[in-house]
Design a protein that fits this description.
With 440 residues, the chain is α/β, with parallel strands linked by helices. Helices cover 37% and strands 17% of the residues. It has a seven-stranded mixed β-sheet with strand order 4-10-9-8-7-5-6, sandwiched between helices. Pyridoxal-5'-phosphate binds next to α5. The site of pyridoxal-5'-phosphate (PLP) has 15 residues, from α5.
């Protein structure tokens, strides 16, 4: 049973699901897929819960893919947004406004030196586009190295960075993007507990620099834990070696923290800190805005100086509405220490999931940390993709919303709003237990 929650959703009076589905098919982009055989229609969200059109409540363990951070319609975030909407909704950054400065100061204070310059944009894809521009401008080099099984966005640069062909349209891709064989704890050639696993995986960086580039590169980019790729962390020293090889070839290092940032991993505010490295450019989106289209790039003075050689402008980057929502979200995270909460709940979930793993051998891997976790299903040494789809569907029947991902669609992804409670975690574990018993 879902833990009690004192909220009664407003009666839904809009069009029926069937009507909407037909109209959506006629008017919207056909490429936007719908999850679930019986499409899910959440019409209200409160903190860690979603309510569908019938008023049924669900525990949201996907958070719009790491996007809802402090909670759906968190009252303080909503109040900040509404207050700002009544004052001034748009003022470009070529005028002065206090919130963008105050917010940038707080955001910059969460980074180690020398990361201190903040650029606001509107989406993760756009932030990665800017990061690539910065890297090329700063280094004078062109080649960008990214990892296979990554996801960095849906614009031209995002698709070029993203290695997986199902995310690319059949048009010529942009030149200057190289995709490296990436570490993987289940499917990778080197087990993570092998001595020097990180060093060995990072030799691929050297290989690509040697055989795929002029010997000089602009950047290496990686998510500190692959998100869409199925919650894939790396061996502890992988990034240390990969960053060193990149810098030796004249490049800078970019951390895409779109899913891992803002304390979600529970141990550090930024995912790169879990590996003891400091990138030159950090990209963030999703959790930053608690559901508002907001993203940012943080970099060093040296890189920012090069960016000052031309006009750089973004109509909505630093917009008062986005800044009000982002600032309120970050203030809550820092005041309430949501990072520590992610660790407490995450540790409890991992312990429970590992117990289930001992009981149900189809669970091949439990991984991640804090509130970015993955459970990979493996059957006869192969990815159990069909099982994962069935599991994903049954969770919804039991009022639990999770994500699905990984190269083979065999990973259940758990990325809830960070306000998820211990009682919610126990509910998730009970649903997993029930569904595993039903399906195995
Ligand atoms: C790691 C990562 N980078 C970039 C993006 C692209 O962000 P957006 O969809 O806001 O453009 C995503 C989106 O899922 C992501 O997971």
């Amino acid at each position: 049973m879902l833990p009690p929650f004192p909220h009664t959703p407003a009666p839904y009076t809009g069009p029926s699901k069937a009507d909407l589905l037909a109209r959506r098919k006629a008017v919207l982009n056909q490429g936007i897929f719908l999850l679930y055989k019986d499409p899910f229609m959440p019409v209200e969200g409160k903190m860690q819960y979603l309510f569908d059109e019938t008023g049924r409540r669900y525990l949201d363990c996907f958070g719009g893919i790491c996007t809802v951070s402090v909670g759906h319609c968190h009252p303080e975030v909503t109040a900040a947004l509404v207050a700002q909407a009544g004052l001034i909704q748009h003022a470009p950054t070529c005028y002065l406004h206090p919130t963008v400065v105050e917010y940038a100061e707080t955001l910059a204070s969460t980074f180690p030196d020398p990361l201190n310059r903040v650029y606001f944009v509107n989406s993760g894809s756009e932030a990665n586009d800017l990061a690539v521009l910065m890297a090329r401008l700063h280094t004078g080099n062109h080649d960008i190295l990214s990892l296979r099984n990554c996801y960095h966005g849906g614009n031209a640069v995002g698709m070029s960075l993203t290695s997986h062909h199902t995310w690319k349209f059949p048009i010529p891709t942009m030149p200057g993007f190289q995709h490296l064989k990436a570490p993987h704890p289940v499917w990778g050639p080197i087990p993570y507990d092998a001595p020097e696993a990180g060093k060995q995986y990072a030799e691929e960086v050297l290989d690509i620099i040697k055989f795929g580039t002029s010997g000089k590169v602009a950047a290496f980019i990686a998510e500190p834990m692959q998100g869409v790729g199925g919650t894939v962390p790396y061996p502890p020293d992988y990034l240390t070696h990969a960053y060193a090889h990149t810098r030796n070839a004249g490049g800078v290092c970019i951390a895409d923290e779109v899913q891992t940032g803002f304390g979600r991993t529970g141990t550090n505010f930024w995912g790169f800190q879990n590996y003891g490295v400091i990138p030159d450019i950090v990209v963030m989106a999703k959790s930053i805005g608690n559901g508002f289209p907001l993203a940012a790039v943080v970099t060093t003075d040296a890189i920012a100086e090069k960016m000052a050689s031309r006009i750089h402008f973004n109509t909505f980057g630093g917009d008062p509405l986005a800044m009000a929502q982002g600032k309120a979200t970050l203030d809550i995270m820092l005041r309430d220490n949501t990072m520590a909460h992610c660790k407490t709940i995450g540790d409890h979930l991992i312990a429970g999931l590992e117990k289930l793993q001992a009981e149900f051998p189809i669970i091949g891997s439990v991984r991640g940390s804090g509130l970015i976790l993955g459970v990979e299903f493996v059957l006869d040494g192969q990815p159990a993709s069909a099982f994962t789809t069935a599991f994903f569907e049954r969770c919804k029947d039991h009022q639990l919303i999770v994500g699905k991902g990984g190269l083979h669609g065999s990973v259940i992804r758990i990325k809830p709003p960070m306000c998820m409670t211990l009682a919610d975690a126990n509910f998730l574990l009970a649903v997993f237990d029930t569904v595993l018993s039903e399906l195995t």
